[in-house]
Automatic annotation (TrEMBL):
Gene (name only): gltX
Annotated residues for binding of ATP: 257
Membership in a protein family: Belongs to the class-I aminoacyl-tRNA synthetase family. Glutamate--tRNA ligase type 1 subfamily.
GO biological process: glutamyl-tRNA aminoacylation
Motif ('HIGH' region): 20-30
Enzyme class, UniProt record, top EC level: ligase
Compartment(s) of residence: Cytoplasm
PANTHER family linked to this entry: GLUTAMATE--TRNA LIGASE (PTHR43311), GLUTAMATE--TRNA LIGASE, MITOCHONDRIAL-RELATED (PTHR43311:SF2)
Keywords for the protein's UniProt record, in alphabetical order: Aminoacyl-tRNA synthetase, ATP-binding, Cytoplasm, Ligase, Nucleotide-binding, Protein biosynthesis
Annotated Glutamyl/glutaminyl-tRNA synthetase class Ib catalytic domain residues: 13-321
GO CC aspect terms: cytosol
Gene3D superfamilies listed in its UniProt record: 1.10.10.350, HUPs
Keyword set includes Transferase: no
Protein name: Glutamate--tRNA ligase
Length: 481
């Protein structure tokens, strides 16, 4: 509930965390979780921390860690301390497990894999819940064979119920009997995820756990550890939980690659999205402030709180993202966009020319890729490669008209939009043509395409020498010279 969250936030420093597993890319759901944690901490003047949950050593990779860090940095999400790597803390995790064991909140379980499989087979046959039957909960370890391997299991309360006042989901209650005595330490002494997460959150001072609602059940499994450790040594308060609904595809189904479930870096590299656009879009996926759609980073920090997070799953819509991206492209600094486009085009790009061209390229583009495509005519080499539609515009009659236009443009000493438009309109009037009948063949001759910025913008950007050379190349009735 928002009121409980606000009370907690006002009495202690807010500390949130983002805790990705480096077994793959930073997907869109993870990025939104990171964003919500970052915004909540920044809004309340607290700290946001990063923990890399790399205990799955077989699947965790350095490449994935690098991609996650790169994606977070690109989105502008900074953290208040260096990343904590969960794999470095196994000794501390085991220490807490032993404290729980010694205090009677955990026990050694000597059940063999064969015994556990037989137990599960019986449960399946009897259509019972698949749950450990606590066979070693009250037995003495002396009953086990000497030197037999064991795991340490948490002694979860079996009576009563546990209620969480979730800052997003509201009041949620689970019967304690539904939670089994799960493993804290494996037979080889390594900690399980459930133990490691609780210990790390405590040691990092995390006050608010903001994560996907697929982790809501985990909260009921993690609270018994927290409360047992609080009983043992004190100083282990319950955190404030906020379980955020998941993101679905535009069709309401679980997100997959066909919906856009790709790494954050792919939105930059493959979709041509600006970080501020993705930031804004992720913010609006499940959180709202009235009818506001376009919200800056500073405004988001000022406005964000958990009471604005909805309880329903959000739908990811790439079209909405690209429409928002078009807005941010129009708002972006020309020199910054020119640098991005120059990188995409390669060595042949003239950054100064691209910067000059941005005001006429930006209104037509939804992505940086479209900016690069729109700018391609600036760096095309003669003879221009023509699209099929452009070539169809350059029939003999059009070439003859271009020949007459070339003569007039050669005499033009004032190479500005206004002067060039006046000269071209005058020539069109002589021919008793609408301007479009002349402008379209001009566009084909100048760009090799049928779409471009305004034709007089194109003439100015290309300059007099290059413009005349391109038009003249198409101005002979006999064909290109």
């Amino acid at each position: 509930m928002a009121s409980e969250t606000e009370t907690t936030a006002s009495t202690q420093q807010v500390v949130t965390r983002f805790a990705p597993s480096p077994t793959g890319f930073l997907h869109i759901g993870g990025a939104r979780t990171a964003l919500f944690n970052w915004l909540y901490a920044r809004h309340h003047g607290g700290k946001v921390l990063l923990r890399i949950e790399d205990t799955d050593r077989k699947r965790s990779t350095q490449e994935a860690i690098d991609k996650i860090l790169e994606g977070l940095d690109w989105l502008g999400l900074d953290f208040d301390e260096p990343p904590l790597f969960q794999s470095d803390r196994a000794t501390r995790h085991a220490e807490v497990a032993m404290q729980l064991l010694e205090a009677g909140h955990a026990y050694k379980c000597y059940a063999t894999p064969e015994e556990l499989e037989e137990m599960r087979a019986q449960q399946r046959a009897n259509k019972q819940p698949m749950r450990y039957d606590r066979r070693w909960r009250d037995r003495d370890a002396s009953e086990a064979p000497a030197g037999a391997p064991f795991v340490i299991r948490l002694k979860v309360p079996t009576e009563g119920e546990t209620t969480i006042h979730d800052a997003v989901q509201g009041k949620v209650t689970v019967q304690n009997a539904e939670i089994d005595d799960y493993i804290l330490l494996r037979a080889d002494g390594t900690p399980t995820y459930m133990l490691a997460v609780v210990v790390d959150d405590h040691d990092m001072g995390v006050t608010h756990i903001i994560r996907g609602d697929d982790h809501l059940n985990n909260a009921f499994r993690q609270l018994p550890i927290i409360r047992a450790m609080n009983a043992i040594e004190g100083g282990w308060p319950d955190p404030v939980y906020a379980h955020v609904p998941l993101i679905h595809g535009s069709d309401g189904a679980k997100m997959s690659k066909r919906h856009g479930a790709i790494g954050v870096e792919a939105y930059r590299d493959e979709e041509g999205v600006l970080p501020e656009a993705l930031f804004n879009y992720l913010l609006r996926l499940g959180w709202g402030h009235g009818d506001r759609e376009e919200i800056t980073r500073d405004e988001a920090v000022e406005l964000f709180d958990l009471d604005g997070v909805g309880k329903s799953a959000s739908r990811f819509d790439i079209k909405k993202l690209l429409n928002l991206n078009a807005h941010y492209i129009r708002e972006a600094d020309d020199a910054r966009l020119a640098a991005l486009v120059a990188e995409a085009i390669g060595n042949k790009a003239d950054v100064a020319l691209l910067t000059q061209a941005m005001p006429v390229l930006k209104p037509r583009a939804k992505t940086t890729h479209e900016l690069a495509e729109g700018a391609a005519f600036l760096f095309a080499k003669r003879p221009l490669e023509m699209t099929e539609k452009a070539a169809a515009l350059l029939d003999d009659e059009s070439r003859e008209r271009l020949g007459g236009l070339t003569e007039r443009l050669k005499a033009e000493n004032n190479w500005t939009i206004e002067a060039l438009e006046a000269t071209t309109k005058s020539y069109a009037e002589e021919l008793e043509l609408g301007l479009g009948k002349l402008a379209q063949p001009m566009r084909a001759a100048l760009t090799g395409t049928t779409t471009s910025p305004g034709i007089f913008d194109v003439l100015v950007l290309l300059g007099k020498e290059e413009s005349l050379a391109r038009i003249d190349a198409q101005a002979s009735p006999a064909g290109p010279r």
